[in-house]
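quick one: shikimate-3-phosphate bound model?
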Amino acid sequence: MTAHKAGLMAHPARKLSGTLRVPGDKSISHRSLMFSAMAVGESRVEGLLESEDVLATANAMRAFGATIDKDGDNIWHIHGVGLGSFLEPEEIIDYGNAGTGVRLALGLAAHGDFVTRFTGDASLCSRPMGRVLDPLRLMGLEVLESNDDRLPLAVRGPARPAPMRYETPVPSAQVKSAVLLAGLNAPGETTVVEKVFTRDHTEKMLVGFGADLTVDTASDGTRTIVLKGQPEFKPQSIIVPGDPSSAGFPMVAALIVPDSDVTIQGALMNESRTGLIKTLLEMGADITIQNERESGGEAIADLHVKSSELKGVTVPEARAASMIDEYPVLAVAAAFAAGDTHMEGLAELRVKECDRLSATAFGLKANGVTCVEGKDTLTVTGGVVPGGGTVPTHMDHRIAMAFLVMGLGSQKGVAVDDAGHIATSFPTFTTFMAELGAEITPFDADAMAS
Ligand code: S3P
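yep, here:
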């Protein structure tokens, strides 16, 4: 028996309006729980993203010995066990769909001489883990069981990880972070060199928790991150800013639906995450960045977005890391823009929750949009979007949300075959969009196919 898929259909919208706050940032939420689990004493986290991916990290940290609860005011309290004091998990840690969660947790599994087993859903089990296992093996992690360096995995940590210098071969904050997290419990200095600036939440938050970490940026942009191992980790009080990746969906929806006027409050404005805003502004988007302020050591702002006549642009490879999760929704914006939008440096999209480059191209074509998919490029020819297609989401939350957004601006609406995975990052997506005036209704893809 095959599981019934939860399809959704987004109908053409007349206008979107309102002022809303997007849920907490996924990257910072994962790290808040993990880092708090390593501090002795109680940390508190406000605004945690309560999505499936993040709740999987809460369970993983409980398996390592942390106590984690939420109070009546939605504040999360984490009683950490201390750095180097993780317990051997008694059960297999099921990370569901969460690539960031499991890759960072593999760095933590290197903290002691014990066995940790990880598994996940079909999407996660197909994703490459060698990119983190390779450096972690050099630090002493032993891979006992794996499916060609994919999940399900059983690993044994060394008694103490060996510090090392590692140059990341792919632009990936997950790889950088896994090495740094293993290095936390190594005697001596762990150095990570990255040629491309990827999101720096790990660096910033480790310093906040008391680690001795320095970053040197060379004139060509290469960053050398040096972490002194075995710091004294102190519990923290964290306020999680709004997720700019989630904000991208209502932002693009407001741009492509006529007469829209939407304000998204409290979005994280860390420069390693603002590539989509920069690109949309170049395309002629009417986005005003308002009320810029600081919260918990991060820049945040409100984004006031009005419907806009967009034009096609070239998005350079150098910008890819700062908007790596935003290409599906950028492609949707591009479908409504005058002329061609050409995106370069997209190789990493092929190893996300699905092959996002081909899933995006397929969804565009299924809805009457002309595009050309290259090995690591995508060119979208914009104009009027007919819609009327059904998009396979391949267990990928961002493919689902991007094409539902497309439906709102299209002539006939757009359906997605399975929207269940939206709960991994933005569980309130449909009610959020409904509050702005969007009509998104259940859609039975199985019935349509039979
Ligand atoms: C993330 C890093 C990115 C991003 C993911 C979150 C993180 O992955 O796609 O959604 O929190 O470190 P890569 O580091 O593999 O590019």
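The longest helix spans residues 244-256.
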